[in-house]
Amino acid sequence: MVEKPGTILPDKTPWETLKGCADFIGLKQLLNDYGVDNLTLQQIQTLGRRIQKMGGKDVLRIAFMGNFTLDLLPAGVTVRGATAGLQAKHYLGGFNQYYQEMLDSESGLRTFAADYIVLALSLRLLEPDLHYNYAGLDEKTREERKERALHHILDWVKLSLENTSATLLIANFALPIHLAAGIGDKKLPGDETTFYHDLNKKLAEALLNEDRCFILDIDNLAANFGRKKVCDPKLFFMAKMEWSEPFMGEVSRTVWKFIQSIQGLGKKCLVLDLDNTLWGGVVGEDGVLGVKVGQGDPTAEAFLEFQHCIKGLKARGILLALCSKNNLADVEEIFSLRTEMPLKWSDFSAVAVNWEPKHENIRRIASELNIGTDSMVFLDDNPAECSLVRQMLPEVLTVLLPEDPAAYVDVLSELDGLERAAILADDLRKSEQYGLQKQRTVHRASVTDMDAYLRSLETEVTIRSAAKEDLARVHQLFNKTNQFNLTTKRYSLGEVESFFTSEKHVLGTVSAGDRFGDLGLIGVFLLEWRENGGVLDSLLMSCRAMGRGIESAMMNHVKSLMEKNPGMRQLEAVYLPTPKNQPVENFLEGQGFKVTEARDDGSKHYLLAYTEIQAIDCAWIRLKN
Amino acid sequence: MEDDIKEIMAEILDVDSADINENFGPENTDNWDSLSNLRLISALEERFSIKLTMQEIGTMTDFHQIKKVVSGKAK
Description:
The complex is a heterodimer. By secondary structure, chain A is of the alpha/beta class. Chain A is 42% helix and 18% strand. The longest helix of chain A is centred in the first third of the chain and has 25 residues, at 139-163. Chain A is globular. By secondary structure, chain B is mainly alpha-helical. In chain B, 59% of the residues lie in helices and 0% in strands. The mean pLDDT of chain B is 90. The interface between A and B is medium-sized, with 18 and 13 residues.
């Protein structure tokens, strides 16, 4: 049925085909063609059940725990996961069993070995007095109840962090729709709305520095969704469902946004058209001063707002790139003359302004930034351009902007792939680092001898065991590094923490910098000591640091660790091929490893005997540690 | 309307709509549990723009009864 990916229009994929699809890979394509947002709530439940029953090996495990009926929550997460090719299996905790199941190591929850645990509690079931008798409680009692609810959750979180390696998603509380004092609430000493705000605030503050905990901001979600639709009283009385089916859909989408981001499946780069995308009008026709962006005109203000919104994404760590059919000189002139624009020329990490087909430019941008085309979003107002890019690069998320620029910002904020669960310091500096990459590339063009180029970079490298504060970044690298990655093993933060504390493992990090600036923490290796030898479990490096010998410096360090452990007679390693990691296919051969077995699936097993250890020359790198 | 109801029931209960006869009830399929019953109610309410009371829901125990209540409400 599937002829060519991306060419099937939504109405050509009938629901029956989707429903009948028995294999997960096929389902991903069909779902993306159909559009997950076109599915009804019933269809999502049906598909969720189908996927739950499918076999599969790389499965993500998600547990849902709470004190009210959550049965309708998992399907939405499963189906959204399927659109990204991530197969999720879920576990639904027993009603009100979240403590018992966490405490009992034989429980369904504990034996499920979840990667993620969602905890959703109903405050009216947890602390009924607060819900039914708010005005009747004195202030002191209310505060006591607030603390009790808070500690009930925080104690559970502590237990979960200790007993599992899962990442926790903790729901906060939606404000009640019926206030005990009605419009008089704000004259109540210790008013009810502030009570909820304070409870949510305290919960967030307590979990702020827990890298494995995230808040599902149910209150904010409920406000956007419409508080009155959050609970269907009938379903609450009949089935203890605190959240209505449509609201479950909203929550599941938010859960998915977190998982997508934490798993490193988010989009990395936003590729933008110019005319009628960043400003109103066409620069070739309306002129540099004629295009609309700025104050004083509704259309111009809409484009101004859109640019502000894009600038906000840059601050989130999303790379920006330009892809436009225009004369470069005109475009450069706009950016230098129209200073009222919040977006500046320097905000773009890559620029392709020419008359080449856009899909070719997008490919070029991807290779310039060393990222996969599947991590790009392309925004254009022209249906023909969008359609061509969609056809040629189906893995790019192509978004056709609506007719009215007033609606642009909403389109952008609906793109779940641009969400980030947390913004790491490294993310904030990312586009700055790619900007430096631009300079380095130019620099390379002017130095012809490779060796002279490498020397001229003045690369400095620090290789050491991971510190506690590195773990979030290490986890991020494990999950998003595709190209320079020997085994592409994805580890949860909990697993990373266990390697960090394990005596049998060495979790090493590599940080680098050069004359252009700091590259940050860019490499990770994981070494496991066995009885008489070591196993190189993982070795990976951010693509922006590739090709300058840092990888050899990292390997030399691993070899020196071997030498310091005289009992270790050999080092085993393996290369596991993926569609993206060809750059390391022959890396180990170059480092002196001997192939012991090459399998049909393309994987290769290696051995490096203690007696054959030799450091690889990378004299142009200065080791700082 | 009868076909619409059957279609909704078939979707939610994951059965063939041809198998739904007048006496089709929870004893005919394992999928008809309390939760799918509620999903069925929500879907019927949405499809026919009606609100069913808890008492009415209590009487809707097979296809015949569902049809009776829904057709009485939906104009």
